[in-house]
Amino acid sequence: MNKANLGVALVTGASTGIGRATARALQRAGFRVFGTSRRAASGGSDGITMLTCDVTDDASVAKLVEEVLAETGRIDLLVNNAGIGLLGGAEESSTAQAQALFDVNVFGVLRVTNAVLPTMRSQGQGRIINISSILGLIPSPYNALYASTKHAVEGYSESLDHELRTFGIRVALVEPGFTRTAFEENITRPDRPLAVYDAVRADMEMQMRKSVKSGEDPEVVAETVVKAAMANAPKRRYTAGKLAGQVRLLRRFVPESAFDKSLRKQSGLPV
Q: Of 15, 37, 140, 157, which is the active-site residue?
């Protein structure tokens, strides 16, 4: 593929935020881009073809991949971006709610990845970029279940990369920090809230809103995805933005006890 035609890219969750910015950045870089949304969305005016897909539904995912292949015959890049959030104490969510979160954030990644892998193997090349989070590396109070999904995606992606290299396919992770999107407006609340957590949960939500408001532009994450997509020898992880990079370094080099105290202080919890 030359620079003017880098191949076919498929971006899940591309109707808004990071996904939309990523689709546009890939299109500008030279990819033919297909984006997905759960509901019918307009597309095409900026060169991006939007298709409907529910990543929690096997048939919907299969139909998506069939549509792309029918039109292009190939898929060179998959960006698994579709995801949802959940803010609350770990015991405030029922098992059913936790399963629903994992069904989107983890099993959604598995479904779409499994659907495109036969094509990538037959091509002898391909790249998969999974949008994780800095919470895939560190804990976060009142984000236990969400952080768990991202830790799961991290472990899955690392192992998968080792399995697929012999087929010419590479897997990379992009780890954003706080990003200025509507993510916090659409975040899920616990389905069995407990009064004992109300005050701190409210504080955590206020902190999150402030952090998102002052966070990175979605385009910062999008450009990181483009970098990972075009690297001849991709790294396993790419942090997106200044804060994410700082947190990764601190997690790696600061003693565990000191990191723990800092995290609790930043979260407004007793040290």
A: 15
What interhelical angle do 107-123 and 144-164 show, nearest 10?
A: 20
Domain boundaries defined on the chain: 7-266
Q: Does the predicted model carry a pTM greater than 0.90?
A: yes
Selected catalytic residue, list 37, 93, 140, 146: 146
Query: If you search the block for the tokens 């870089």, which residue do you land on?
Result: 29
Mark whether 146 is an active-site residue: yes
Is residue 80 classed as helix, strand or coil in its secondary structure?
Answer: strand
The single residue of 93, 142, 148, 150 carrying the catalytic annotation is: 150
Query: For the structural domain made of 7-266, what CATH number should be given?
Result: 3.40.50.720
Q: Is 15 a catalytic residue?
A: yes
Helix (H, G, I), strand (E, B) or coil at 62: helix
Q: What is the pLDDT along the chain (271 residues), one digit of tens a residue?
A: 445 588 999 999 999 999 999 999 999 999 999 999 998 765 555 789 999 999 999 999 999 999 999 999 999 999 999 999 999 999 999 999 999 999 999 999 999 999 999 999 999 999 999 999 999 999 899 999 999 999 999 999 999 999 999 999 999 999 998 888 776 556 899 999 999 999 999 999 998 888 888 778 999 999 999 999 999 999 999 999 888 888 888 888 999 999 899 889 888 889 8
Nearest one of 92, 116, 89 to 11, comparing CA atoms: 116
- Say which of 37, 93, 132, 140 is annotated catalytic: 132
CA gap 32, 8 in Å, rounded: 5
> CB neighbours of 187 closer than 8 A, spacing ≥ 6?
84, 85, 86, 87
